[in-house]
């Protein structure tokens, strides 16, 4: 893993052609284009607002400002996933976030991610999750990583299984996703379970 700059936000991480960096205002056109192209791909796994929820959707600029404020306050780690093979212009491949970060005696966070359909199958999601996990364990000294996945999302389950996260259980009606309250399988990893070479070192495993 390569860390660019400070361990405090903004943080940029890289391993091979996978780059994690904050979303920028100038990414807006590309972000909307990628999201539009992948609407059907991500819809079954996208969070939604329950009926009767208050508040309106936010603009892209408001989203970027909110991400940055939460990151600086230590509440989240919101990255764009960039696909950046050597010699090519980096392009937006998806998003990786560690949210709900709790410090104090708990010291945990929950990861969420998506990768564009056209770039699926290249190991981008496992690499991005490994980079994020190593950063939260090492730089933030968090203890517990959670990933909540709908049991039907077999592609995402393969990502966490590849990195050796363990299934802890099922949380019924855990999150409002794709228009309804959905059960989620919770996969976890604790800091003391990680080898000296980090979670990124697990990518070379079987």
TrEMBL record:
Keywords: Acyltransferase, Transferase
Annotated Pfam families: Acetyltransf_3
Domain of life: Bacteria
Xref: PROSITE patterns: GNAT
Residue intervals of the N-acetyltransferase domain: 18-192
Keyword Transferase: yes
Family, as annotated: Belongs to the acetyltransferase family. RimJ subfamily.
Protein name per its UniProtKB record: GNAT family protein
Higher taxonomy: Bacteria, Bacillati, Actinomycetota, Actinomycetes, Propionibacteriales
């Amino acid at each position: 893993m390569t860390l660019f700059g400070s361990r405090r936000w903004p943080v940029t991480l890289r391993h091979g052609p996978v780059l994690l960096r904050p979303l920028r205002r100038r990414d807006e056109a590309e972000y909307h284009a990628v999201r539009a192209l992948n609407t059907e791909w991500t819809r079954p796994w996208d969070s939604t607002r329950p009926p009767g929820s208050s508040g309106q959707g936010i603009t892209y600029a408001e989203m970027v400002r909110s991400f940055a404020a939460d990151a600086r306050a230590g509440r989240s780690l919101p990255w764009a996933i960039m696909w950046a093979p050597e010699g090519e212009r980096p392009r937006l491949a998806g998003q990786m976030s560690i949210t709900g970060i709790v410090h104090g005696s708990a010291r945990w966070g929950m990861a969420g991610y998506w990768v564009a359909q056209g770039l699926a199958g290249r190991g981008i999601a496992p690499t991005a999750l490994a980079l994020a996990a190593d950063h939260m364990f090492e730089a933030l000294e968090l203890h517990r990583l959670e990933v909540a996945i709908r049991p039907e999302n077999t592609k995402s389950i393969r990502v966490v299984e590849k990195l050796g996260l363990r299934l802890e259980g099922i949380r019924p009606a855990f999150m409002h996703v794709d228009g309804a309250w959905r059960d989620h399988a919770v996969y976890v990893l604790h800091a003391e379970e990680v080898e000296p070479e980090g979670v990124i070192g697990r990518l070379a495993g079987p």
